[in-house]
From TrEMBL:
GO terms for biological process: pyridoxal phosphate biosynthetic process; pyridoxine metabolic process. Transmembrane segments: none annotated. This is Probable Pyridoxal 5'-phosphate synthase subunit Pdx2. HAMAP family: PdxT. Keywords: Glutamine amidotransferase. Pfam families: SNO. It comes from Elaeis guineensis var. tenera (Oil palm).
C-alpha cells in the first residue's frame, strides 16, 4: 500500500514517518502524474498561501481536484484542511486557490499567530470507537485554522474550546464570540483535521484514514455487484414458457 503525501512544503516528512511507524509506505508527490500511482493522498500542514502558489506553479490543482472527485481518500491537516474546504475566510490579500470538496467554511488563521500555537486534549469518542484507545487525543495546533460552519453531510469528529486568552484580532465582529469550534471532520472520502496528528506518537488518525480506503473499495464492490445483478435481471425474459 502506497500513500501519497503532497511534498511541496510543510510537514510532509513527518506524515511519511508516521505512516512508516504503522508499516505503510509514504510517497512524496510533487508532479500531477505521480498521483496516478497512489490510492490515498495526504495534504500536510504548512503555510497555505505558499503551498497554493507552489501547487499552481507545478500545475497540480486540476490533478488534485480530479483525485478528490474519484472518491479516493484524501486527508488534509491544518493547511491541507484549508485546501479541501469549499470556502475559506481570513485569507491574505488576493486570496488563494482551493481544491474544494469539503462542505465547510474554514477560517484560515482562527487561533492566531505562530506565538499563539498550543496543545490541548481533545475529546474524540468517534475515533476511539473505531480505533480503540482513550477517548482523548493530544491536539497540536500550530497557527491553526478552525471550521466555522459544516454542511449537513459532514460528520464532526472533534471540536475544541476557544482559549479565553486567545487574541484573534482577525475574526470579524459579525461572527460573534465562539466557545467551541470544529477541528476534525469527515465527509465521504475526505478527512480534515485542524491540528497535527503526525507530530504525536498516536497513530489512530492515520489508521482511520487508511480504513477509509477499504470502506470505499467495499462500497464500490457492492455497487458493481448490484449493477451486475440489475443487468442480469434486465436480460432475463419475464414471460418464460411453462413446461408440464
Amino acid at each position: 500500500m502506497a500513500v501519497g503525501v503532497l511534498a511541496l512544503q510543510g510537514s510532509f516528512k513527518e506524515h511519511i514517518a508516521a505512516l512508516r511507524r504503522i508499516g505503510v509506505k509514504g510517497v512524496e508527490i510533487r508532479k500531477p502524474e505521480q498521483l496516478n500511482n497512489v490510492d490515498y493522498l495526504i495534504i500536510p500542514g504548512g503555510e497555505s498561501t505558499t503551498m497554493a502558489k507552489l501547487a499552481d506553479y507545478h500545475n497540480l490543482f486540476n490533478a488534485l481536484q480530479e483525485f478528490v472527485s474519484t472518491g479516493k481518500p484524501v486527508w488534509g491537516t491544518c493547511a491541507g484542511l484549508i485546501f479541501l474546504a469549499n470556502k475559506a475566510v481570513g485569507q491574505k490579500s488576493g486570496g488563494q486557490k482551493l481544491i474544494g470538496g469539503l462542505d465547510c467554511v474554514v477560517h484560515r488563521n482562527f487561533f492566531g499567530s505562530q506565538l499563539q500555537s498550543f496543545e490541548t486534549q481533545l475529546a474524540v469518542p468517534k475515533l476511539a470507537e473505531k480505533e480503540g484507545g482513550p477517548d482523548s487525543f493530544r491536539g497540536v495546533f500550530i497557527r491553526a485554522p478552525a471550521i466555522l460552519e459544516a454542511g449537513p453531510d459532514v460528520e464532526v469528529l472533534a471540536d475544541c474550546p476557544v482559549p479565553s486568552d486567545n487574541a484573534r484580532t482577525t475574526i470579524p465582529a459579525a461572527e460573534g464570540k465562539k466557545e467551541k469550534v470544529i477541528v476534525a471532520v469527515r465527509q465521504g472520502n475526505l478527512l480534515g483535521t485542524a491540528f497535527h496528528p503526525e507530530l504525536t506518537s498516536d497513530s489512530r488518525w492515520h489508521s482511520l484514514f487508511l480504513k477509509m480506503g477499504k470502506e470505499a473499495g467495499e462500497r464500490n464492490l457492492m455497487s458493481a455487484d448490484e449493477s451486475h445483478l440489475e443487468d442480469c435481471q434486465e436480460k432475463m425474459p419475464h414471460d418464460l414458457p411453462i413446461f408440464e
